[in-house]
Input
Amino acid sequence: MATSQPTTFDEFFNRAQELFLQHPDETRFSVKYRPSEQRLYLRCTDNRKHIRYYTEDQAEIRKADRLNTLMMTLMALPHYDEETIKAAMTDLEAKPKATTTTTQGSSPRPHKGNKTRRV
Output
């Protein structure tokens, strides 16, 4: 089994996508976080190639969450033709990140009963 360890997250991301496109029925993706080391481990394999990556950087951990969502979305597809996979990747990349905004002085829940409190 050929093992590789990319030096950047983007390189790992691209290799994992390529691996999935080559062998979608045999590709596995795993994520492990070790709190004692504050390190995130990512692995992707199809039993021929094995790609490993680890990081301690918070920005890369957020990117890994996005990759995890992409891989789970792709693996849940009923069939794996190249068009469907590329459409799923494009949809996921196009989705905006969820943000929450609150206005200053507003209460997240009503004050007693249904009345809202004035500030």
User: Anything to note?
Assistant: Strands lie at 2-4, 28-34, 39-45, 49-55.
